[in-house]
Amino acid sequence: MVDLVFDGVVVAKAQVNIALIKYWGKAPAGRPEETNLPAVPSLSVSLDGLWTETSVRFDPDAATDHVTLDGERLEGEPLARCVALLDRVRELSDVASPFAVQSTNHVPTAAGLASSASGMAALAAAAVRCAGLGSGTGELASRIARIGSGSAARSIFGGWVAWDGPAARSLFPRDHLDVAVVIAIVDAERKTIGSRIAMNRTRESSPFYKGWVEQSQDTFVEGCEALERRDLVGLISAMEASTMRMHACAMGARPPILYWKPPSLAVIEQVQRLRSDGDLVLGWTMDAGPNVKVLCPGHDVQRVADTLARVDGVQRILISRPGRGVFVDVR
Ligand code: PMV
Question: Order of strands across the sheet with 179-185?
Fold first, then answer.
């Protein structure tokens, strides 16, 4: 162990991402650094304007890591996730010192969006840089972010991102395809069952899990190929199939896992109606919560947003576009 540590502050900003092809299921993990290795490949887009800012410094006088999020000190499971990530940074850099971490979410609190991806990506990027392990913007930061939250591995990179191994990787820059994402908030409450517990329960008890894993590579390749040829219709078709299969698989668990609320279905039906009316290209996806994210061409975004805002039960609409990767600054 070395006892001389960097005495500056590193600040990282990372954005949330949404999966078009879903991560749902973990490969068996033996060692701590194998935490959250995905059982299936996923494809995502990082989202502009929804981000976490995290500052990290060594605090050699502290007894343990301390982390505040939006001014509140973390304890219990949320703290344990950060400590697991920071332990890996200490192990790789051979430094023993605890870290002092301050984090602020700029994902609207009422959005009901998981900010764990942006939060863990910002934490990993800042800690990697602080410990002298590299820029914090590449493969190592992605591997380490994954320990805190699987989907955080993807938020290290901007634009279109694939995750099919220990780290995520950039596939295409954000301007590769001109799209917007409309997020229909139907419930801003905390999710009823967290993704970690839900994924494990699905693997252990859903009879559909085996089929989900078996088809995942084909759906992933289909999505990536559609994206490569800028085929939004093809990408939406793969995204909706992946979404439906993920939720069907979770619904098959014991006890069943159901994230959908009546207004979620009303939004999906409106998307289908707009599509069958003929002149709009758009598609929907949902994650471990009831809000619906709708992908459409950039120039149609206002029309889609206005229509979805009128659906019964929609509380709020957010609009986003493909965003940048993590930004790291040393002060
Ligand atoms: O990173 P986690 O553990 O919050 O898992 C996220 C899983 C989904 O959001 C449902 C799908 C995905 O690929 O992001």
Answer: 283-285, 292-297, 179-185, 316-320
Any atom of ligand 1 within 6 Å of the Cβ of 287: yes
Domain boundaries, the chain: 10-176, 179-320
Task: List the structure tokens of 252.
Answer: 């098959």
Distance CA 79, CA 64 (A): 11
Please tell me the distance from the alpha carbon of residue 267 to that of residue 80, in angstroms, as a whole number: 36
**Cα 130 from Cα 246, distance rounded (Å):** 37
Task: Tell me the C-alpha distance between 213 and 48, whole Å.
Answer: 30
Q: 């007894």: which residue's tokens?
A: 63
- In CATH terms, is domain 179-320 a member of 2.170.130.30? no
pLDDT at 30: 86
- What is d(CA 191, CA 95) in angstroms, rounded to the nearest whole number? 36
CATH topology of domain 10-176: Ribosomal Protein S5; domain 2 (3.30.230)
The reply to whether ligand 1 has any atom less than 6 angstroms from the CB of 26 is no
pLDDT of 197 above 70: yes
Measured in angstroms, how far is the CA atom of residue 265 from the centroid of ligand 1? 20
Site to probe by mutation for ligand 1, drawn from 17, 20, 23 as the one with most ligand atoms within 8 Å of Cβ, is 23
Question: In angstroms, how far apart are the furthest CA atoms of the chain?
Answer: 66
| 3-state secondary structure (DSSP) of residue 322 | strand
Summarised one tens digit per residue, pLDDT across range 202-246 is 999 999 999 999 999 999 999 999 999 999 999 999 999 999 999
Q: Is the CB of 191 under 6 A from ligand 1?
A: no
Cα-to-centroid distance, 134 and ligand 1 (Å): 26
